[in-house]
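The pair is quoted verbatim below.
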Amino acid sequence: MEENNEIKMTFEQALAKLEDLVRRMENGNLTLEEMITGYEDGSRLAAFCRSRLNGLEEKIKVLTDRDRVAEGESAWSEMPVPEAAAPQGDGN
C-alpha cells in the first residue's frame, strides 16, 4: 500500500483488494503484525472506495439535475409544496 495515502488504482481494483484482504483476515492465519497492517491497509482502501462512491454519487446528481433543467424542469420540481394554511376563526 502506498505510504502517502494516495491510492493509485481503480475503484474496482481497490474493492477487489479489500475483499481479498478481508478473506485473508477472516481466515485467521495471519500473525498479529500482519493483522494490524491489514487493518491499516483495509481502512485506507475502504476510505478510498467510500470517497470514490461519494464523488460518483455527486456527479450523477449533477448530471440528473442538468438533464431536468434541459427538459424544462427545475431540481426543485419534485419537492412537495405545502398547502396554504386555511384561515383560522370566523374572521371577526
Notes: The chain has two helices and no strands. The mean pLDDT is 82.
